Amino acid sequence: MTPQTLDLDSGSLQTLWQETCSELTGVVSPLLVEAWGKTCSLHQIDTYADNTRWLCIFLCPSSFNALQFEKNLGAATKNALATKLGRPVELKFIFNLPTTTNTTDAPATTPLTPAPIKPATGSATDTPAIAPKTQAAPVLTGSTTGHASNITTNYSEGLFASSTVRDTLVSRAATVAKNIGLRPDFTFDTFAVSGSNEMAHVAALSVAKNPGISYNPLFLYGGVGVGKTHLMQSIGNFILRSKPETSIIYCTGEEFTNSIIRAIQNKQALNFKDKYRTCEVLLIDDIQFIAGKNAVQEEFFHTFNALVKQSHQIVLTSDRPPHEISLLEDRLRSRFEAGLKIDIQQPSFELRSAILLAKAKAAGLDLPIELAQTIAARIDSARKLEGIVMRLKSEHELTGKLIDQTLINTILSEQQQQEYSHRQLHPKEILQAVANHYSIKQAVICGTRRQKEIALARHVAMFLLKSMLSMSYAEIGRLFSNRDHTSVMHAVTKINDLLPSDNALSQDVAAIKTSILGGSY
User: How many domains does the chain have?
Assistant: First the structure.
């Protein structure tokens, strides 16, 4: 049935949603409410002609935000609003291009107390007891019940048209971002989310929306290619698109160190302090680089204190948590640990596949999902996936080769040879790494026992010996109590076939490779 719109005041809708968000923080993670709930606004409430349900329409900044809202907060929001409104609730999401301000994002300075909302009991025209609207609602077009859709708002055309203002802000933000070293493609919209990085993504988005308020400092750590830099730069790009005038510094730990050295050499220490201690957002990648450098740590300590005192945001990344950074001063370690620390795990097979498809699409490549899964099963690092996409693009555009299984096998083989050629691996290194990972003695793995756990470790070891060292099946068989080459072939084929679908196995193989190559993989 066609819904009828209730004549609700926008301020009362905002207050209703603010109160609902406060209640949701006791039901779901406050991070989820901050990231997906408070980024949206309760735009309109309709009632169906059968007078049994409410349709609550939310305005979201993007389709991705709407989907995440529905996934993470949908059920809890329905329950909370149904309790307030006195009848079952359905949700609808509409979205617009990002704007420079969003009243629902700013913390309310004075709590509002709306008139109580009474559940409708009469005809379809009954309305809650809320003050009438004081201004016309925006004209919505193109909306479709049941999923997110585009909306447009009528503005007068010309110099101050919404599209002109928006394009100007976007252009200015892009220029500023380029000048400070941020990549334009490192945004939240291009960041693939899964269980291994979901919490980091939510926290980073919360910081971007409320810099200096939510989680200061934010400390992201993890191995190579897990998305630390992508998230950090997404924060900077997000803030600049909202407020291009924001003073942001982005640098690596090495660049921070070099800046201090140059400042001392050129007798410009005061300029350095003014620059770093007054910025509104400080983003430092690979902060572990400053460990063991006393003068650098001394300067960063005072910079850190000055920024936190002014409620200016600090975001740091590292390849390890603060307590594992050797030669880091205790006073810095304690400050890093006082903020929010999040470990970003290696991407799962599904996430690697999603990342690959997204990067291929951005590069203008039509990559079938089956081929993407083949690559994701053999490449464990998101950073290396980007290199594979660039290689596919160059082969396709410059030589005219088709993107098929043959081309991918060739590229993957060359990639593997390049990764392992810089050092001489010994079979014992691989066997020991497998033994350490599964907590099984090396002699047992190479023995004849057939328990399930031992057999799995043995098969993984055989697979790695074949894939990393290109040993013959007969050579591998001799390392495992002189097993027949057909047994080794079966083990290698089994692991190779399981990797695309077995996430736990994929994580095991990735972790073992990382330990073998000293974290460079």
Answer: 4
Give 254's Cβ-side CA count (13 Å radius).
0
Enclosing domain of residue 29: 1-156
Residue scoring higher pLDDT (4 or 190): 190
* Same domain flag for 33 and 47: yes
Which whole-number Å values give the CA distances from 154 to 137, 139, 363, 382, in the listed order?
A: 10, 6, 34, 42
Q: How many CB atoms lie within 10 A of CB 98?
A: 16
Find, among 57, 35, 38, 37, the residue nearest to 47 by Cα: 57
Query: For residue 190, what pLDDT band results from cuts at 50, 70 and 90?
Result: confident
Q: Which two tokens stand for residue 462?
A: 């055989």
Residues 1, 140, single domain; the answer is: yes
How far is CA 130 from its chain centroid?
A: 39
Report the C-alpha gap between 181 and 259 in whole angstroms: 15
Q: Residues 390, 393, 399, 405: what is their CA dihedral angle, to the nearest 10 degrees? A: 100
Pairing of strands 313-318, 281-285: parallel
220 and 255 together in one domain: yes
Indicate if 69 and 3 belong to the same structural domain.
Answer: yes
pTM equals: 0.57
Provide the CB-side half-sphere exposure for 241 (13 A, CA): 21
Burial class for 321, CB neighbours closer than 10 Å (0-12, 13-18, 19+): middle
Predicted confidence (pLDDT) at residue 121 exceeds the cutoff of 70: no
150 DSSP assignment: B
What is the rounded average pLDDT of the residues 340-356? 86
Place of tokens 């003050």: 131
Calpha distance 456→450 (Å, rounded): 9
% of the chain beyond a pLDDT of 70: 81
User: Which has more confidence, 339 or 104?
Assistant: 339
Q: What are the CA-CA distances from residue 480 to residues 405, 458, 509 (Å)?
A: 32, 8, 19
At 416 the pLDDT is 67
Residue 400 tokens read as: 């005219």
Degrees, nearest 5: CA angle 199-204-205: 100
Q: How crowded is the C-beta side of 275, counted as CA atoms within 13 Å?
A: 14
